[in-house]
Here is the input.
Amino acid sequence: MPQIQMLNPEVLGTPLGQYSHMTRVKAAEFLFIAGQVGIKPGADKVPTDFDAQCAQAFANIGAALASQGASFVNVVEFTTYLVHSQDITKFYAYRTREFPKLFKGGAYPPNTLLMIDRLVREEFLIEVSSVAAL
Here is the structure.
């Protein structure tokens, strides 16, 4: 069983949202999950709204974790890529609403948020990669 501590040292100040500044991990294995986008596996159609894509990206991460006997409690880091800066507030709202359900007790993993020109397909609005400790 991994030992995972989410840390927010005073020298870094208070996080700006639902994330921690650092994760301290003692684990036997790590699981690196490639960036997940907002489309259901096997589907052809991508939802056009950000919230649906965001929810699906995290659902895909949850499925990847479950396939290895893990859950969101094992996640030690996220990297999030957004195409449109106006979606930042929507992403924050999603995390504020959903992360307390995924991470009981409010210990949220670090999340690096990056703005990029585009993703692999033009219609994708968000991609999230993650690292989990097993």
Q: What stands out?
A: The two ends are 7 Å apart (CA to CA). Residues 50-67 form the longest helix (18 residues). The chain is about 25% helix and 30% strand. The chain has one domain: 3-133.
